[in-house]
Design goal:
Blueprint lengths: L4 H5 L9 H10 L3 E5 L4 E3 L8 E6 L2 E6 L5 E7 L4 E2 L14 E4 L3 E6 L1 H5 L9 H26 L4 H15 L4 E3 L4 H8 L3 H13 L3 E4 L2 E4 L16
Antiparallel strand pairs: 1-8, 2-7, 3-6, 3-8, 4-5, 4-7, 9-11, 10-11
C-alpha cells in the first residue's frame, strides 16, 4: 500500500492530507490493494460490497447486461476515483451492475466503517477525509447527471456532440482522447454502433470533427451548426 501514498495524496479523497498522515491512516482504514488484468471482473452483479474502493491504476467500466445479453456501459472509472460507495450501507443490498477492468488495473479497498469512524488515536486528518468523501460522492453524482444529459438527447448526433464537447471542456483542449473504443462508446451512449460510426463519418466529412481511434479533434467554428445534420432516428 505504501507505494500508492504519493498517488493517494493527489486524489480528491485524500485532498489536504500529507503523505506522512496518509501512511499512518492506511493502517487505521484497513487498506488493501488488489490487481486485475484487462477484462477481469472487479465486482459482479449480485455480490456484496467489499468496502470503499478507489482505482489506483488502470481503468474500469461499470456496466449492465440485460437478460438478452445487451450491454450498456454506465460509467467509466479513472485513476483516483472511488466507486462502490452506494453499496456499503448495511441494508444497501447486492451490486446491481458489474465492474470490469478495461485495462490492467490496481484497486485499493478501505473498510467503510473505519473510514466513517474516527479511530481511538484520533488521527488529526480523519475528519478531513470524511469531508472529502462527501465532496467526492457529490462529484460522482454530478457525473451521473452529465450521463443523463447525454442519454436525454434525441439523436445519435446530439448524444455524440454532447459527450465529446464535455470531454473537450474537461480536458481543456479541442484535441483529446476518450477512454472508449467504438463499441464501448456505443454502449456508453446506448446507441447502435453502425449508426454511430456512420454519424461520426458524416461529421468528419462536414468538417465538424476529426478522429483517429480514440483521439478526437472538434472544430469549434462548426459546432453551432453541428446538431442539424443528422438524418437518422437512432
Amino acid at each position: 500500500m505504501k507505494e500508492f501514498i504519493h498517488l493517494l495524496k493527489k486524489t480528491r479523497l485524500f485532498f489536504g492530507v500529507g503523505e506522512e498522515e496518509i501512511a499512518l491512516m492506511l493502517g487505521c482504514l484497513n487498506g488493501t490493494a488488489r490487481s486485475y488484468v484487462k477484462g477481469e471482473y472487479v465486482l459482479r452483479q449480485g455480490e456484496r460490497g467489499r468496502g470503499l474502493a478507489l482505482l489506483a491504476r488502470g481503468g474500469l467500466h461499470i456496466r449492465k447486461e440485460d437478460y438478452w445479453g445487451n450491454l450498456s456501459i454506465l460509467s467509466e472509472i479513472r485513476p483516483g476515483e472511488i466507486f462502490g460507495e452506494a453499496y456499503v450501507a448495511p441494508d444497501s443490498g447486492t451490486f446491481m451492475n458489474d465492474v470490469t477492468a478495461s485495462e490492467d488495473s490496481v484497486v485499493l479497498f478501505f473498510d467503510m466503517d473505519k473510514v466513517l469512524s474516527v479511530c481511538p488515536s484520533a488521527c488529526p486528518f480523519h475528519t478531513q477525509l470524511i469531508k472529502n468523501l462527501f465532496y467526492t460522492i457529490s462529484e460522482r453524482n454530478r457525473g451521473l447527471v452529465r450521463k443523463l444529459g447525454y442519454m436525454s438527447r434525441r439523436t445519435t448526433r446530439e448524444k455524440l456532440l454532447s459527450y465529446l464537447s464535455d470531454e473537450a471542456e474537461r480536458q481543456n483542449s479541442s484535441t483529446f482522447t476518450i477512454p472508449f473504443n467504438r463499441q464501448q462508446l456505443a454502449d456508453f451512449l446506448s446507441v447502435d454502433r453502425s449508426a454511430m460510426s456512420n454519424e461520426l463519418c458524416k461529421m468528419r466529412d462536414q468538417g465538424i470533427l476529426a478522429f483517429h481511434k480514440s483521439e478526437f479533434t472538434i472544430c469549434e467554428a462548426k459546432m453551432m451548426d453541428a446538431s442539424s445534420g443528422e438524418s437518422g432516428d437512432y
